[in-house]
Amino acid sequence: MPTSPEGAKTRAQRFIVAGLLLAALIAGSTLFLFSSSRVPASSPAASLAAVPKTAPGTVPATYVGAETCKSCHESEFKAWSGSHHQLAMQEASATSVLGDFANAKFRKDGVESTFFRRGDQFMVRTDGPDGKLTEYPVAYTFGVHPLQQYLVPFPGGRYQALPIAWDTRPKNEGGQRWFHLYPKQKTDYTNPLHWTGVYHNWALQCAECHSTNLHKGYDPASQTYKTTFSEINVACEACHGPASAHLDWARQARPPYGAADDKGLPSLKSRWNEAWKFPSDTAKFAVRDQPAAPAGMNSCAACHARRSTLSEDRTPGAPLEDSHRLAMLTAPNYHADGQQREEVYVWGSFLQSRMHQSGVTCMDCHEPHSHKLRAEGNALCTRCHAAAEFDAPKHHRHAAGGKGAQCVTCHMPTQNYMVIHARQDHSLRIPRPDLSLTLGSPNACTQCHADKKPQWAASAMDQWYGKSWRERPHFGNTLHAGETEGLPALPGLLELAASPTAPAIVRATAAALAQPHANPGTLAAARALLQDADPSVRIAALGMIARADPASRVLGGAPLLSDPIRGVRIEAARLLADMADAQIPPDRRAARAAALQEYEHALALEADWPSGQVNLGNLRLQQGRGDEALAAYERAIALDKAFPDAYVNLADALRQLGRDPEAEKVLRRGLAALPRDADLHHSLGLLLTRKGDRAAALSEFIAAAKLAPDNARHAYVHAIAVDSAGKREQALALLRSANKRHPNDVDILGALVSISRETGDRQAALRYAKQLAQMLPGNANLSRLIAELEAR
């Protein structure tokens, strides 16, 4: 086997932290997810060692190493040498370490860290897991530009990434200095983001995308790692796949080589140079002569996407969803109009773009081995966009040669991540300052002109282009409504999800946002989406039927147990995990068993995340294996005692098992660790209500509502508890206030109708009932109530 680090990104200088984690919500009444793990530091772990290559020619194909590829592909090897991929991770040495280890000091939050040398060993003296200054050896470098991080060995096969990084930029650009990745946060040893904790664990967070053929090798029983990789960096086979079969072909093949020959590797060529042509001398845009094979671009997706991992056995060139779960275009990762917000690593942004819809691939712009652009500046864009039309002041309206005249300034604005790493938004969008006014999303105009407001930018565009640009429909309005307006947004979400012209990731996001509002009336729409060509849409559509009756779930989900894409099969298995075999069609039972096995394998890969254990607990609870569910939730808490969702899920599982006294102890244990967590207070309030202690429950509901004032559910339950305590006027006041903040919440409106009616305020009850009827058209009971109130 191989040996290496993890990471959901490729460029060497990245390290994900807890605030950036991608965690998928598993269905259930109060079931949440996330991730973490901890082991005390003391003696360093043994050094990672790349495992010897397996002899080529065996079946299945094995990894042979970049040096073997070099013998026939010297130019590609030369281009790769010195690239971010080739330098993604290195053993710490005088040539690889770029930071100042000449007794350099860095101070933050009262901790003075010192970087020094001890012979050939690079060392750091900094605060350990107990807060005391401790000396640690640096084992590996991580990244090269614009920053470099350092990995420290810990017991149990762990490697922890220091949060103090070296700025590798030139001094005149602000570089050649130590800096902290959380400059505005206090992350001492009591904080879950402390560098010795789970969220800085290399194997957990970064390793997958910084090495070749990585296998995490986590053992939940001992909480240890035996991580392996074939090569320490991102080498040839990270993209092309194991090459032993290709070597077998190469030994026997003789020119001329046929295009259709099975060369033992998937073809990742994009035909970038000859595929694009201007159809005429007056054409504004080049067109591709034929669609590019998706394998080439798919090879980039796994490490250039915000996603979670389903399988380490990725087939080169396969769709991302076969090995990973892609994050949708929702907060906090994206702004409402799809612009990058958190670091999302390009793929989800590019999938939205008109470039992608027109057939542009990653390799049309980027040389895949050196990662250099195919051309510099606007020359790259004018390969497909007529220079006379677009690289001209009449189009960009800025001084020629200046920053404003650069295509990327307006169409690919940057945002800094990891403090200093500017990343361009690959959604390649036309600036829409008008959406900044309605959605609160950024726009390229005022990102450059920081002293101006979006109104100013919109007015300038009106003068340049007329006002028709404002009328162009944008999916951002629908997605924003889906995140903020609740049930009234459902028709628009369903229409967008079914749109033949919208990008697939946009349609999948719309379907995902529709999930909480799915009802029997949306089953037909969901069934249509289950047949969609895009796997992300099929996955989201399965979520739309998760609350349907068993027969509808089986009817929609069972066929997808045999879907060609692993991620779809896994979601179908999760959807049907609570079904007895007798409820599954006989010809689908074997597929269900196989898909469940794939799901469990995916959960095993996430066993070192608290979210992975919570998801496993959710599955076991679905399957009626209560004791195993409880054990999984407890493991999640053991991994991160500051992970509130684990306590909430554990308590809810105990409730379902009829063990409320134990559930109360769990919630109080959680509150001892997290006294200001609103969900824990809310859950305890519900438990105390069941217990009959309404006064104590009310105090918990009050705390939850104060700690999370924007949570509609907490506000509603707080008001109902106040009403149950006999304080009806106070309850009405709370509900009215909540209704102003959440005008489309069905429960709040329903409570206002009911209590207003009971207090004799017929006009108020009628007003709220009519508002509710707009959200629930065709509801017979509501129609009868409105008629009754109007008759009186």
From TrEMBL:
**Does the entry feature the keyword Signal, yes or no?**
yes
Q: Does the keyword Signal apply?
A: yes
Q: Name one GO molecular function term.
A: oxidoreductase activity
Q: Which UniProt keywords apply?
A: Signal, TPR repeat
Provide the Doubled CXXCH motif domain boundaries: 361-388
Ranges of residues in domain Cytochrome c-552/4? 68-93, 201-241
Query: What top-level branch of life does the organism fall under?
Result: Bacteria
The UniProt entry annotates TPR repeats at 610-643, 678-711
Which PANTHER family does this UniProt record tie to the protein?
C-TYPE POLYHEME CYTOCHROME OMCC (PTHR35038:SF8), DISSIMILATORY SULFITE REDUCTASE SIRA (PTHR35038)
* Protein name as catalogued: Cellulose synthase subunit BcsC
Organism listed in the record: Candidatus Accumulibacter adjunctus
